[in-house]
Amino acid sequence: MLAHSLLSCAAVEQTKLTALAVFHAVVAVRSGTAAVKMWQSVGLTLLVIVATLVCALLFMMFGWYVVWQLFLSKFKFLRELVGDASTPQADSQPSETKSERPTNAPARSRPRTARQRVASPESTS
Q1: pLDDT digits (tens, 9 = 90+) for 44-58
Q2: Number of structural domains in the chain
Q3: Would the pTM count as exceeding 0.85?
Q4: Domain assignment of residue 53, yes or no
Q5: Considering the domain boundaries, does residue 102 fall inside one?
Q6: Where, by residue number, does the polypeptide cross the bilayer (predicted)?
Q7: H or E element that contains 121
């Protein structure tokens, strides 16, 4: 009986040690899994931040391109600042020289208001 109880005590102790070893192994695996999950979380956070910055940068570049094409490129001063060699259609048309302009056609000038117009001698008589 004493041998049986000693064997039983030894078996219980062995079972306790085995259970303790299993517990430590599970804790080690879980802590390793937790570390992996933490690094995955940090990596995912960094990926989201970088993707957000890239999207914002692309959106801003597209917006500036549209604004340049529709509005800012029309100003010769801004084109000279940027160094843009292409010219819009308004500047690409050659202006007429004095020799090409018909003699009876008036020079390009502002239209005069009623106060600025001088009465022609034919209309006064």
Answers
A1: 999 999 999 999 999
A2: 1
A3: no
A4: yes
A5: no
A6: 43-67
A7: helix 121-124
